[in-house]
Design brief:
Blueprint (H helix, E strand, L loop, with lengths): L1 H28 L13 H10 L6 H13 L14 H36 L4 H15 L2 H15 L12 H30 L2 H8 L4 H13 L1 H24 L5 H10 L3 H29 L7
């Protein structure tokens, strides 16, 4: 187990390094620069700004300098938000995105698992068909469409919910619903398929033949085995809620890391792009490592190599 964890951590570090390297060079291959869009900036002033931030040096030298600083936790200063460091931007904005994403993941799990079980237990019946239709729509419809529909009906037409910011608990309802819709649908279909497979196993038929209570057989035997694919999906799900929240944050004007990331791409704020990319890549990779370890804890039969 320890050897496996060390191996996965080593691969995680290599993955983050590769992501950071590709992002750095691809970002600099795009024509233009962070100061070219500013008004009333003379060529001399632009050259002075590039010299101040080290952008006048050869690209490979910039890369080595940046990676050396990043290893010490220094992602540099924002090129557009003068006086603010990338680290301060991440630490101030990420908790907002994390809270929104965390609530969405919790909602998706609490809704998707029971709906999948109900659908499997009522296979071919009306309830199963209704759940499948809703789950299919949830997978097919993009999050920005869900955002638009929720905002139009509940925010503009009915005026039941606020559409901007996160000042009250009501502000969370539409963004969480939009962000949780896809993972809820996916977990529902995943849970339904897995539960149907488990219910057809010999040990479940034996438990039923012995007259074991259906509730006990479902939650003690079936659910523990059927939930394993959902545990595996938790890693990509966390990735989806963080990256998927960027669009949701932009539409509902939520002051999270998503808005900062999109803004940094638009403004060519290289240091913010690099800092947020490295931070999010590290978060996603290590969350997948944790999910693999949890997978082993849930099912001790899994052999980790």
């Amino acid at each position: 187990m320890v050897k496996y964890i060390c191996k996965r951590l080593g691969l995680a570090i290599v993955t983050v390094f590769v992501v950071a390297t590709l992002t750095f060079f691809l970002m600099n291959l795009v024509p233009g620069g962070p100061f070219m869009s500013e008004k009333a900036v003379s060529p001399k002033a632009q050259a002075a700004l590039e010299a101040k931030y080290g952008l006048d040096k050869p690209l490979f030298e910039q890369y080595l300098t940046y990676m050396k600083d990043a290893l010490h936790g220094d992602f540099g200063d924002s090129l557009k938000q003068r006086g603010r460091t990338v680290t301060s931007i991440i630490t101030s904005k990420f908790p907002v995105s994390a809270k929104l994403g965390g609530i969405s993941v919790l909602v998706a799990i609490l809704l998707g698992i029971p709906l999948g079980c109900i659908s499997a237990l009522n296979r071919g019946k009306l309830g199963d068909n209704v759940i499948i239709v809703i789950a299919t729509c949830g997978i097919a419809v993009p999050s920005f469409v869900v955002c638009t529909l929720l905002m139009y009906f509940f925010g503009v037409k009915l005026k039941w919910l606020p559409t901007l910011g996160l000042s009250t608990w009501k502000n969370y309802i539409m963004p969480v619903a939009a962000l949780a819709f896809y993972p809820t649908a996916y977990i529902t279909r995943l849970m339904r398929s897995s539960m149907l497979d488990v219910l057809g196993q010999d040990y479940m038929r034996t438990a039923k033949a012995k007259g074991l209570n259906q509730f006990i057989s479902l939650f003690k035997h079936a659910l523990r085995n059927a939930i394993l694919p959902v545990v595996t999906y938790l890693g990509p799900l966390l990735a989806y809620t963080v990256t998927g929240s960027f669009i949701v944050e932009k539409i509902f004007t939520i002051p999270g890391l998503g808005g900062e990331f999109i803004g940094s791409i638009t403004n060519r704020d290289y240091t913010v792009i690099m800092g947020t990319t490295i931070f999010l890549a590290t978060l996603m990779v290590f969350m997948n490592v944790i999910v693999d370890i949890v997978y082993k804890i849930v099912d001790p039969r899994i052999k980790l190599k």
